[in-house]
Amino acid sequence: MINGKLRELGPEEIETMIRDARILSEDGRGVKVLETPGGEIIKFFRLRRRVSTAAVYPYSKRFVRNASLLKERGIKTVDIVGTFRRSKDSPDAVVYRKTPGKGLRSLLEGAGLPAEGAEQTLRDFTGFIAQLHREGILFRSIHFGNVLVLEEGGFAVIDVADISFRRGRSLTPRQRVRNFVHMSRYAEDREALIGFGIPRFFQLYLEASQMPLGQQQRFSRLLSRKMRKTYADLA
Question: Structure pTM?
Fold first, then answer.
């Protein structure tokens, strides 16, 4: 960004970036994420349905807006370079600088962290999630793959197109539970939490949440009800 405004990416620059980039993610519909030799990430957004609000308010613009709002709240996230669309029929895209750090999921499931390191990282992560929720940030698509452990310490969130903000209010117990239910859909994340200890994870989260006692109790009841099938420990 230059002087607070998105830099306009010209057609020749765009084609050069795409031609020399390596594929980080793709599916049956095509390439989803690229990385350029210069350390920039190109993320493409395709409409999920023919009739969608994204046709009016593109995902790329939501991504840029959400990244800005996160930074206003002190949450670390990506640094935006610009957005573009190659043609009327092509998906829109956002370009951002690669954030120095490693994915939380890859650190926990591989040899990236020793046992004691994984333990402390998950303890710290409960506080980070509690911070998001206190700030009224509902990161609907949150999972360990969308969280970076930064080189200088702390966490950052990526893939931020699907976020809503409650101005001046923290999330309700129901919204908090919804966030954790989404996270439980990923087998790798479930295994990491089970290894850490499900009750302990949520107890640490509650201690960092700053919710009044009544809201904590409501959160715990809702969580047990919603996640009983996934986490037998909570029954």
Answer: 0.84
Q: How far apart are CA 126 and CA 198, in angstroms?
A: 12
Helical spans, DSSP H, in 53-152: 59-72, 104-109, 115-134
Q: Note the CATH architecture for domain 11-97.
A: 2-Layer Sandwich (3.30)
For residue 2, the 8-state DSSP code is: B
Both tokens of 159, joined, read 């893939």
What CATH code is assigned to 101-229?
Answer: 1.10.510.10
**Residue holding tokens 């046992």?**
115
Average pLDDT per consecutive 10 residues, the chain (235 residues; last block may be shorter): 51 78 83 88 76 59 93 94 76 88 86 70 96 95 92 92 91 94 87 88 96 96 83 52
What span, in angstroms and rounded, lies between the C-alpha atoms of 137 and 69? 10
